[in-house]
Amino acid sequence: MARPSSGEVTERPWADGTTATFGARVRAYGRRHRLTFGTNRQGWNRTRAEIALEEILQKVERGTWTPPVRTTTARNIGRSRPDGHQPFGPFASKVIASKRAHGLDDDTVAGLQWRLGYLPRRVRAS
Fold it and tell me: In whole angstroms, what is the distance from residue 12 CA to residue 19 CA?
C-alpha cells in the first residue's frame, strides 16, 4: 500500500540575500514530486505557498490532481568536443544528406561518400 499523501513547503534563499524561491515537496500517487511556485519578487510568501500546497493536497485526496510534466529546452546534440568544434565525420554526413535532399545526383553522392572512405567506419558518412 502506498504512503498517505503529504507535503511540505520549501523556501530556498538566493545568493543575493533578498530573494527566495517558494515551492513544495508533495508525496502523491506513490511518488515524490517537487514543485516550484515562484519567488518573493513575484508575490509568493510562506502563507501563500501553504495555501497552494493545501489546495494540491485536497485535489490529491479527490484524485483530480495531475503532477506537472517536466519539460526541458535542453537538446541532446550528440557527441561534441570541449572546444565546441564538431568532428569532421558527422559534419560530412550532414553535408552529404543536405546535398542529397537538394536533389544531387546519386552518382555524385556516391562519389562524395567514396572520397570520405578514409574515415574510420564509426564516423564515415552514410
Answer: 9
CA distance between the termini of the chain: 52
- If you write DSSP's letter for every residue of 50-62 in order, what string do you get? HHHHHHHHHHHHH
Output the pTM of the full model. Answer: 0.54
**3-class secondary structure per residue, 32-52:** EEEEEEEEHHHCCCHHHHHHH
| Angstrom distance (rounded) from CA 5 to CA 30 | 8
Q: Band of the pLDDT at 88, cuts 50, 70, 90? A: confident
Cα–Cα distance between 53 and 50 in angstroms, integer?
5
Whole-angstrom Cα distance, residue 112 to residue 69? 44
Q: What is the pLDDT of residues 50-81, one digit of tens each?
A: 999 999 999 999 999 998 887 555 555 555 56
- Closest alpha carbon to 33 in 64, 1, 57, 58: 57
